[in-house]
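A common beginner's mistake is to predict each chain separately and then try to dock the pieces by hand. The better habit, illustrated here, is to supply every component at once so that their relative placement is modeled jointly.
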Amino acid sequence: MFEVYRRAKMSLSSAYADVIEREDAMAASTYQSSFERSTASSFPGLKRLFLPSLSRVVSDWSLAGSVTLPVRRHRLPFEPDEALRASPEAQEQARPKAFVEVPPLRESGSKITILQQWIGRVARVIDGRFLAVVEDVTNAHNPPEEIELDVADISESDLPLLAEGATFYWSIFYHDSPGGQRMRNSSLRFARQPRLSPADVHRIFEQADCMVALLERD
Amino acid sequence: MVGSFNPAIFQPRWLGAQGLIRPEEAAAAKITIIQAEVADFSTEWFQLQVLQNRLMITTGDPGHFAPLRDLGAGVVTLLPHTPIQRLGLNRMLHFKMPSIEEWHRVGDTIAPKQPWKKIMEGAGLRSVLIEGRRRNGSEGLLHIKVEPSAKVQPGVYVEINEEFRSVAADGQTEGAEWVRDLLAGNWDDFMAFAQEGAEHVRGLSES
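With all components supplied together, the output reads:
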């Protein structure tokens, strides 16, 4: 049995080498078929042992798309046909609608030009004022600053969100109206998160209790 | 976001009731249409359009980029079981060029006209779409589109898109929570990159 295996291997190596020398993909395919026929009948195990590697070689050659190749493609790593891959049809198949077209904005006619922008976190709320630490978004190299703002600057519907630790976005900008009037404005908006359900609140408190118990344990 | 959505639930009042937008904004929203197949409305600072396979939230106000991210993250937090396969972050910028010559130079650098001169006259860049990935190792697939600006003349329009995919295996659905995590981890980087990338395109007039 071993002898059959050895002879088949030598025969295959020799045939494969010839194919490589002639750079003939068609021949590789022919040899694969004949080898498959002969070994499958004489020693079925050989097919399982050899065919995967031979199939890989043949598929590389077949992808080359030419019977006579100017370069020895078999020594290059396998790469799918890049030109074929880049075609719009292939792109559509591989990644449907890869580039999502965003519908145009319904223009209001006005234009916003940001002059300065910060992200702030409320540190303390005092009578009618609040202290906050703000980070400069316009120039991230600037260090955080502590500032004091009037509660009156906050929109009424954002007032319930004013609490220690709350995040807000603050910007100063030009607003060019459709009529051509330029106005210098300031906008302060508190970050909003979905309202927590009673179950969520219960779960968070449970987790906090577990954490406290863990920390207080000796 | 690309996935499976129920457009009918996306109503301004629902967003207001969930605390994602101000009640006044919800009340003053301009509703174009809300039906089973499509929902489309706008507020002072954002537009929302939902089809059964797509959800888009856009703003033209740079002061509201961060609230826009919060709104997107809030929606997927409220609907964690919505199957979302893809998320695209987009930023669109128009640059007014100082002169028509510099405007031409951007187009000529991106798409040289010499190869076309033998077969056509007046060759000019109408649109080019480049695909790649960011150098920072982001998992997103990047697309940069460059066109003449329709807003400012002479101007250059640059649209930057980065697309992220659910990591769920093919045929599986992962829900929507990955979108919230991705927004938290990638938004600021993407916005900074988009600004830098668009500035780079504009700067091609100097090369």
